[in-house]
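From the shared-data thread, chain only:
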Amino acid sequence: MSFEMAGQSFMAISAGPYFKFNPSISLMVACDSVEEVNTLWKSLAEGGTALMELGEYPFSKWYGWIQDRYGLSWQLMLVEGGMTSQKITPNLLFSGDACGRTEEAVKYYTDIFPNSDMHFFSKYGEGEAKSSKAIVNYAAFKLLGMEFSAMDNAYDVEFGFNEAFSLIVQCEDQAEIDDYWEKLSAVPEAEQCGWLKDRFGLSWQILPASMNELMSKGSKEAVQRITAAFLKMKKFDIEALKRAYNGEA
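Structure, as tokens:
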């Protein structure tokens, strides 16, 4: 399923019991009023679990972190002085083995993708983090023009990044797919159907930009052929997908 929230594109699939959402990736929503924060909180709290109770914090006059009924985590924050350029910002919480590597990861990602840069870094003060590995308490950066934030988890926890939430890169040609695949993939056993896992455990999907159109506009038989083809692939081969779509041997 492809859909939009606040003008941003998202995709969702049913993957059975294999992976579950956790707070390692959350969606941070910039709100322009206390009323907006409260309204969103009320809706997301139905069947959900508060991770940080709604209230005033040093970094925001009205903020809360909640896990909704489906397990997806949201950070709702009052942003004073007008809205930011992006309503919803993915937040990466580096936990477990990846804790302490936020700065390394942000530099790595911004070097890989064009139209990317680091905006802001803030580090934990002495005694602020319970985890001895935690260094960065907030980082703001941009990848391909899209805003992201990241931080090291202040607490030692068992969860970390997994395939339940992945970042999709739409590629215009095979050369672009090959380039991103070579730079990002670090776990060979995780490579499947265009999915890969990087050195920090974060999952990515490296897809042809034409895939959505082929899957949505093709005949039932063409979609079945292209699906059968990509299920056998690790890195996507655009020419092989086109041959499958057209019914060519």
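The longest helix spans residues 34-45.
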